[in-house]
């Protein structure tokens, strides 16, 4: 990579991706030469979709963004950031309630690797109430999802919840 180019990592569980995540990705893509969306395995969170499924869905949704790539990761985030030769972690902040955990995580990541900087970006206000957990609840209860997630994700949620199977 050219030394002047800036690459960031946008990590998360993305179980599933919401329009709020997409908004942060678009904002990061305007600031950085390259954005690597890093999908955490996070088995402890008992995800609805496997990491391979989440990576596949994100790749499909993010096809129109040539500077954005998607990868799964396990283990420490700072190690992944180093492995893709990035310098910055981007996280979204929806509300003050997100701040405490995000602040703790950013400081711990800095302690683990002082060369990795965390920056926060605010998604559009109308997405501030969105979360993957709430999306899954609406999906389970049969509510309309089209306003909140891309069509690929609506389809995947409906298929997964109708079949009742887990990865
Ligand atoms: O979308 P999420 O679930 O809020 O994302 C959290 C994530 C995946 C960014 C965080 O759990 C993470 O970085 N996990 C990797 C493990 C790690 O590095 N832990 C130490 C950082 S405090």
What would you note in describing this structure?
The protein has 167 residues and is α/β, with parallel strands linked by helices. It has helices at 19-31, 51-61, 77-83, 96-112, 132-140, 151-163, and strands spanning 7-12, 34-40, 68-73, 88-92, 117-121. Strands 3-2-1-4-5 form a five-stranded parallel sheet. It is globular and about 45 Å long. It binds 4'-phosphopantetheine. The site of 4'-phosphopantetheine (PNS) has 10 residues, from strand 1 and helix 4.
Secondary structure blueprint with pairings:
Layout: E1 7-12, H1 19-31, E2 34-40, H2 51-61, E3 68-73, H3 77-83, E4 88-92, H4 96-112, E5 117-121, H5 132-140, H6 151-163
Parallel strand pairs: 1-2, 1-4, 2-3, 4-5
Bound molecules: 4'-phosphopantetheine.
The site of 4'-phosphopantetheine has 10 residues, from β1 and α4.
Shape: globular
- Bound molecule types: 4'-phosphopantetheine
Question: What is the strand arrangement across the widest sheet?
Answer: 3-2-1-4-5
Residue share in β-strands: 15-25%
Write down the overall mean pLDDT: 94
Q: Provide a count of the helices.
A: 6
CA radius of gyration: 16 Å
User: How far do the termini sit from each other?
Assistant: 36 Å
Give unreliable regions as ranges.
none
What is the helix fraction of residues, given as a range?
A: 40-55%
Biggest beta-sheet profile: 5 strands, parallel
In terms of structural class, how would the helical and strand content be classed?
alpha/beta
Order of SSEs: EHEHEHEHEHH
Total strands? 5
